[in-house]
Specification:
five-stranded antiparallel sheet; D-amino Acid Aminotransferase, Chain A, domain 1; Phosphorylase Kinase, domain 1; alpha+beta; about 25% strand; globular; 15 strands
Length: about 325
């Protein structure tokens, strides 16, 4: 494991944005995209950390973990549904098939938990019992396992700029997706989640919930309705929440919070200061971000069974050198 001192030293040098001599750059919360030829695109994953739909900090090695861990999961789930990944030219970059993103984020939840305003426990604790179109009984406890995983979709951004809650029925009734596509997406999402739960359990972790994004590949015949692909990221500490498996039952029985291995502890730290995405962002100590970096690296190693090999900093110089080898820049 990289020392805490080294991570603190790297904080000012964390990878904030790419600087590539390529046209057409688009910027998201964490990733940046560059169009390539032949229906491909380059995705660069930065060290930016986002929560509550806000950029909060830059965390060393976070982008590398997200990029390489997603590649590992794409490989583990490609027998369930094809994905957009073509190759990994750099620890922080991926070449993917250009796909048109579906306008719905597919959240799969295995437990009633969470502190964000769209989380099941947050809504349930406010007294709601009809949430995302599901009816929940009285007497549920925070962090309790659901009988079966459920899908709780949201819009991507929505009129307010934040994700807006949907029911599964509304995805079709509001015209976001047609019924056949939505059925295919739901089936794939639940299957990928169950694969994730199984592999996480082997690694000593509980996959609590996750977000999936899907896209439609271009149809080679030129007609509409290309193949549905799993895109973006899969089962990373950004898109998913993980708990330590060996202590979950005892801590749940005692009414204690599970030991988490994701970025949820960052959300909790902000929530304890009364921040849930609105107003001025509170300042946090550097130790929090060094600890976040350690979490990302640890979960990568636990899930993959591989030792994390840190890429060199500054990332932009390394990235350009690796792309230059491929005659891409």
């Amino acid at each position: 494991m990289i020392s805490r001192e080294k991570l603190l030293e790297l904080l000012p040098h964390a990878f904030g944005e790419s600087d590539l001599p390529l046209p057409g750059r688009e910027v998201g919360k964490v990733r940046e995209w560059y169009p390539l030829s032949d229906g491909k695109r380059l995705i660069v994953t930065t060290d930016r950390l986002s929560a509550f739909d806000r950029i909060l900090a830059k965390v060393p090695y976070k982008g590398q973990v997200l990029n390489q861990l997603s590649a590992w999961w794409f490989n583990q789930t490609q027998s369930i549904i094809p994905n957009h990944l073509i190759s990994i030219p750099d620890p922080n970059a991926a070449i993917v098939t250009e796909a048109e993103p579906l306008l719905v984020e597919v959240i799969v939840r295995g437990y009633i938990s969470g502190v964000t305003t769209t989380a099941l426990w947050y809504r349930y604790n406010l007294g709601e019992r009809e949430i995302y179109g599901y009816r929940f009984p009285e007497g549920l406890r925070k962090n309790e396992r659901l009988p079966e995983p459920i899908i709780t979709p949201t819009t991507k951004g929505g009129p307010s700029g934040h994700d807006e809650r949907l029911t599964c029925a509304e995805v079709v009734s509001k015209g976001i997706l047609d019924a056949d596509t939505w059925e295919q997406v739901q089936s794939a999402a639940l299957a990928v989640f169950k694969r994730g739960q199984k592999l996480a359990q082997k690694a000593g972790l509980v996959l609590v919930d996750t977000k999936y994004e899907f896209g439609r590949a271009p149809d080679p015949t030129g007609r509409s309705g290309g193949q549905i692909l799993l895109i973006d990221e899969v089962h990373t500490p950004d898109s998913s929440r993980f708990w330590k498996a060996d202590s979950y039952e005892s801590r749940f029985a005692a009414g204690q919070e599970p030991e988490n291995f994701d970025k949820e502890f960052v959300r909790i730290a902000y929530a304890e200061k009364g921040y849930r995405g609105d107003g001025e962002i509170p300042s946090m100590p550097d130790e929090l971000w060094a600890a976040a970096s350690e979490r990302y690296i640890t979960i990568y190693e636990m899930l993959t069974g591989e030792t994390f090999a840190p890429g060199s900093y500054p990332v932009n110089e390394r990235l350009k050198a690796n792309l230059r080898k491929m005659d891409m820049v």
